[in-house]
Design goal:
The chain has helices spanning about 40-50, 60-70, 110-120, 130-150, 155-165, 180, 185-200, 215-225, 275-285, 290-300, 330-345, 350-365, 370-385, 390-400, 400-410; strands at about 5-10, 15-20, 25-35, 75-85, 85-95, 125, 130, 200-210, 245-250, 260-265, 305-310, 315-325, 415-420. It is α+β, with helices and mostly antiparallel strands and about 425 residues long. The longest helix is centred in the N-terminal third of the chain and has 20 residues, at about 130-150. About 45% of the residues are buried. InterPro entries: Metalloenz_LuxS/M16, MPP/UQCRC_Complex, Peptidase_M16_C. It comes from Paenibacillus solisilvae. It holds the Pfam family Peptidase_M16_C. This is EF-P 5-aminopentanol modification-associated protein YfmF.
Length: about 425
């Protein structure tokens, strides 16, 4: 596994993270912009990158903007909006080939960073606000994205479980915002939201490729105009929470298959020493095809079409998702709770332990084959304040004992049971 480390720096309000390496033929660039999740900002902030990708001040027409990417030897440009902990994060990504492999008459890293800086700080505008036709078109795009979640009942049940579980916390909000907020957004209001976002967000810029921190510093100073002295740090979410009583929510829709989701508070975060044991807990419970939920709920009892878990280490939440026959709600709930009890008892076979450690190790090794995955892994340190290399995490996972997993299991509490079913009686 690569021992290379990111080098750190700062230009104005942007934290810089540069990994000088000749392993890849491309430069991989990621810009993260994060704000605390909040009801009044979540929808406009989600809409901003959709509008920014349409054009810049120098290439206001979308076709011309895309042609400028073609001029960079078909550079890739994309974005994502998601949440980690209680933060809403917009991530812009660019991939451009290293100049050494093409006969370019322009330095491609410099040109790419200049383009990204313009996307961020000089969007296509008219009469002092973001272009109306882009705002209107992208409101429709965002609306369709949110509606597609409602139509995908597996995703919908997962989101609704978190919404109910965290109903008094920012984490209840979907990172793409709320359908009911979209209509009220105008070009003028979105421009004000954009300017506030630019002024308040935490910015982290990553570059992986055959470059140096000093070179990136010089290029970023020229390409980005995000003034201010100090980058803002991410607020750590409250992870420890005592569950007073387990809530059961039953929602009825036109579905033929029941969706049974459960939310667990694991009371452990990425920054904690027992995070590697929490990774093992998630893996043995439901993270892999050899896990307890998959084998006992799906294979042996034939109660579920699918059964798995997902861990958000930044929020300290583990979710169980399963698809069941509607009539099997009580039986499936009981057998899942038996697996939670089994985790508390510390009874894990050597096969469960070894296979889970091998699966996590394989995943961490595979990260090293992708510059973008290496960037995403390192960003965990920015979010949590806890720096770990993939190598260190792998070694920590390898040394986790059954008792350490049981300790995590015993402080894990079932918080919410969410069941999506049909509208029939019974």
């Amino acid at each position: 596994m690569s021992k290379s480390r990111f080098e750190r720096g700062q230009i104005d309000r942007i934290r810089l993270h540069v990994l000088p390496t000749q392993r890849f033929k491309t430069f991989s660039i990621s810009l993260y912009a994060g704000l605390p999740l909040a009801e009044e900002t979540v929808t406009p902030v989600a809409l901003i990158p959709f509008v920014l990708r349409r054009g810049t001040a120098s290439t206001p027409e979308t076709i011309a903007f895309r042609e400028s990417l073609d001029d960079l030897y078909g550079a890739g440009f994309g974005f994502d909006v998601y949440k980690r902990g209680d933060a809403q994060i917009v991530q812009f990504r660019m991939d451009v080939i290293n100049d050494r492999f093409v006969s370019s008459n322009q330095p491609l890293l410099s040109s790419s960073l200049r383009l990204l800086g313009e996307v961020l700080t000089s969007p296509a505008s008219e009469n002092g606000h973001l272009r109306t036709k882009y705002v209107d078109a992208e409101k429709d795009t965002l609306r369709k994205r949110l509606e597609s979640i409602i139509n995908d009942k597996i995703r919908y049940a997962g989101e609704r479980c978190l919404e109910e579980m965290c109903k008094d916390e920012p984490y209840r909000l979907h990172p793409l915002g709320r359908l009911e907020d979209i209509d009220a957004i105008t070009p003028q209001s979105l421009t004000a939201s954009y300017q506030k976002w630019l002024a308040d967000a935490s910015f982290d810029l990553y570059v992986v490729g055959d470059t140096s921190l000093d070179e990136v510093k010089t290029l970023v100073a020229e390409a980005f105009r995000i003034k201010g002295n100090k980058p803002s740090a991410y607020m750590l979410p409250a992870v420890k929470k005592n569950v007073k009583e387990v809530r059961t929510i039953v929602e009825k829709m036109d579905v033929s298959q029941g969706k049974l989701n459960m939310g667990l508070r694991i009371n452990t975060s990425y920054a904690d020493d027992d995070y590697p044991a929490a990774l093992m807990y998630n893996g043995i419970l439901g993270g892999y095809p050899h896990s307890k939920l998959f084998l006992n709920v799906r294979e042996k009892a034939s109660l579920a079409y699918y059964a798995s878990t997902r861990l958000d280490g930044h929020k300290g939440i583990c979710t169980i998702q399963s698809g069941i026959e509607i009539a099997n709600f009580e039986r499936a709930t009981a057998i899942i709770e038996q697996q939670l009890e089994s985790m508390r008892s510390g009874s894990y076979s050597d096969l469960e332990m070894n296979q889970t450690k091998a699966m996590i190790a394989n995943h961490l090794r595979e990260l090293q084959d992708s510059a973008n995955e290496m960037i995403a892994f390192d960003f965990n340190a920015v979010l949590s304040g806890r720096e770990r290399t993939a190598q260190q995490l792998m070694e920590q996972v390898q040394s986790v004992t059954a008792e350490q997993i049981a300790t995590v299991a015993r402080k894990t509490e079932l918080d919410t049971i969410y069941f999506l079913r049909d509208g029939k009686e019974g």
